[in-house]
Design a protein that fits this description.
With 310 residues, the chain is an alpha+beta fold. The protein has helices spanning 90-93, 99-120, 136-145, 150-159, 161-174, 219-235, 242-252, 258-279, 285-299, and strands at 14-20, 24-30, 36-42, 69-71, 74-76, 79-84, 185-187, 196-197, 206-208, 214-216. A hairpin with an 8-residue loop joins strand 8 and strand 9.
Length: 310
């Protein structure tokens, strides 16, 4: 059980938001100069402190490139502190139904695509010396798949063993557990709408980066974001994600395998389902997720990749 130290609060900073689960805690502060600090720390079920040991590999985007800033954190208490220009994530902005809010998210996704392309081009050391394994999220997914508990038992009853095997095969292909020649890129590991912070007015788009850095295929980062958009469309019927999906993929450019991108999107939705059950507890809403993820596995996440975009 974690004994998380209190989040630091720099002199003059004002807390504007606090939230979290037993996996991770987040505190957002506004500084006197109008900037913002995002502190993330370990939740009650996580042994702290949080670390970002490979953050020195993260590149800075070229000036004027339009790419988001991959913000590298500094240690603060048991957690990590990011300095950004905005108080709210893209996930929060998507709950604002004004057209200008959606346009803000679209611009942020385009900037993020450029930043991810730069990150994926960073040369990795020889695979035998690679200090990075698979993203922690996939580690939790594998532990759940091989473990026990109500969600796993109900999921297997609906999915059958074959769907679970397919899911684990996809995870192994996209991000091997151990350093491997197949882990061809430095990846963000948790490229998510919740980690994407548009500026409130001035300043760069920021993607909180560091703790989940991993080695794998670039498609995993793209599918992670696209999977969140697919899930949003399912949970919020009036949300049509196709325009935002196109923005991300077109800004990233050619190269990613659309089949692997779709499979990565499925991994994201299942990981969210599993994390919810582990760190918040069972809820009957998860029965809908089990059926929905069975559909996603069968179609290999094709709805995450709009036709005509590859």
């Amino acid at each position: 059980m974690s004994t998380t130290a209190p989040a630091p609060q720099p002199y003059g900073a004002e807390v504007v938001a606090e939230y979290g689960t037993e996996l991770q805690l987040t505190r957002v502060l506004r500084t006197p100069d109008g900037g913002h600090l995002w502190w993330q720390g370990p939740g009650a079920q996580v042994e702290g402190p949080l670390l970002a040991p490979a953050a020195h590999l993260v590149p800075r985007p070229a000036a004027g490139s339009g790419a988001a800033l991959l913000t590298v954190p500094e240690r603060a208490g048991d957690g990590l502190l990011h300095r950004v220009a905005g108080p709210s994530s893209a996930a929060a902005w998507l709950r604002d139904f004004r057209p200008q809010a959606r346009a803000l998210v679209a611009r942020a996704l385009a900037s993020t695509a450029l930043a991810l392309r730069t990150l994926h081009a960073v040369p990795l050391p020889p695979y035998a010396e690679l200090p990075l394994g698979a993203p922690p999220g996939l580690g939790r997914l594998r532990s759940w798949a091989h473990g026990s508990g109500e969600l796993r038992e109900r999921t297997l009853a609906c999915w059958g063993a074959r769907r679970m095997e397919r899911l684990l095969d996809w995870a192994d292909a996209l991000a091997p557990q151990a350093p491997s020649k197949d882990a061809r890129s430095l990846i963000h590991g948790w490229a998510s709408l919740g980690a994407l912070v548009p500026p409130l007015s001035r300043g760069p788009v920021a993607l909180l980066t560091g703790e989940d850095l991993a080695a794998g295929r670039p498609e995993l980062d793209l599918g992670w974001l696209l999977g969140e958009l697919v899930e949003l469309a399912w949970t919020t019927p009036h949300q049509n994600p196709v325009d935002l999906q196109r923005v991300l993929l077109e800004a990233y450019g050619p190269g990613p395998d659309p089949v692997l991108v779709g499979r990565s999107a499925v991994l994201r939705v299942v990981t969210h389902m599993q994390d919810f059950a582990t760190y918040r507890g069972w809820d009957d809403e998860l029965l809908g997720y089990i059926a929905f993820t069975a559909e996603l596995i069968d179609e290999e996440g094709r709805r995450a990749v709009p036709q005509g975009v590859s």
